[in-house]
Amino acid sequence: MLSADFVGSNLLGIAPAAVPHLVQAAKDRNRPIDLSDIEIKGESIESLANPHGWDYIYKNNNTLPLSYAKA
Questions:
Q1: Which residues span the domain enclosing 31?
Q2: Do the domain assignments include residue 14?
């Protein structure tokens, strides 16, 4: 499953090393935090990647909207 998360992260344009829980999972499993130990078959990640961005819309008092609160 970790390999799938690494590939998915790259497909979204986010380096796995920038995702704290992926860094910890790789460390716990003694895995590199890149795709160097993953065999990619089919089309390349680069050709399929669709970088994903997001903006957090802060209110005037520097708080996030209630819909962003944890349940």
A1: 1-47
A2: yes
- Is residue 23 assigned to a domain? yes
Each residue's pLDDT tens digit, 42-63? 999 999 999 887 666 666 777 7
User: What is the spatial distance between Cα 50 and Cα 3, in angstroms, rounded to a whole number?
Assistant: 18
* CA 48-50-56 angle, 5° bins: 160
Per-residue pLDDT, 60: 74
Q: What percent of the chain clears pLDDT 70, i.e. is strictly above it? A: 85
Total structural domains in the chain? 1
Helix (H, G, I), strand (E, B) or coil at 6: helix
Token pair listed for 40: 């990619």
